[in-house]
Amino acid sequence: MMNQPFFIRDDRRLVRLNLAEIMILKSEDNYLRFLAKDYSYQVRATMEKTLSQLPEGLFVRIHRSFAVSLNYLEEIGKEKDLVVVGGVPLALSKQFYPELISRLNIIGGDKEAGKKAG
């Protein structure tokens, strides 16, 4: 489904959306903003409806207002309340943390794996 083109309405025209460039989906009231590194689009849509239309597994919800592309996820904070996506720090809700972690390939399974020896 990733090869299938997606279009959004922008000022009475249809614009092709390159999902590979989208880092963040941000919910703003009744609107959803697609954020890429160099541009953004805003459409009248809900987060829930949009995520159901996009390819499964590409985006993961991290907060009631945010979903992120796993391709741009850089870091999850020590306190499990923050993620960094494309250089942008975003809030991570505790309710969405388990789903996020379940979608990652994590090397080093114990808590001590990331600490330096010595």
Provide structural commentary.
- Residues 112-118 have low confidence and may be disordered.
- The chain is mainly β and 118 residues long.
- 11% of the residues lie in helices and 42% in strands.
- A hairpin with a 2-residue loop joins strand 9 (82-85) and strand 10.
- Strands 5-4-3-7-6 form a 5-stranded antiparallel beta sheet.
- It has a single domain (6-102), classed as OB fold (Dihydrolipoamide Acetyltransferase, E2P), CATH 2.40.50.1020.
- It is built from 2 helices and 10 strands.
- This is LytTr DNA-binding domain-containing protein.
- Residues 6-106 form the HTH LytTR-type domain.
- GO terms for molecular function: DNA binding; phosphorelay response regulator activity.
- It holds the Pfam family LytTR.
- InterPro entries: LytR-like, LytTR_DNA-bd_dom.
Largest sheet: 5 strands, antiparallel
Overall spatial form: elongated
What is the alpha-carbon Rg in Å? Answer: 16 Å
Overall helicity: 10-25%
Q: State the separation between the terminal residues, measured CA to CA.
A: 48 Å
Q: Ranges with pLDDT <50 over ≥5 residues? A: 112-118
User: Looking across the biggest beta sheet, what order are the strands in?
Assistant: 5-4-3-7-6
CATH class: Mainly Beta
Record field, number of beta strands:
10
Task: Indicate the CATH topology.
Answer: OB fold (Dihydrolipoamide Acetyltransferase, E2P)
CATH homology superfamily: LytTr DNA-binding domain
Percent of residues in beta strands: 35-45%
Mean pLDDT: 87
Class computed from helices, strands and strand pairing: mainly beta
* Quaternary organisation of the protein chains: single chain
Number of H- or I-type helical stretches: 2
Which architecture per CATH? Beta Barrel
User: Secondary-structure element order, as H and E?
Assistant: EEEEEHEEEEEH
Estimate nothing, just give the exact number of structural domains. Answer: 1
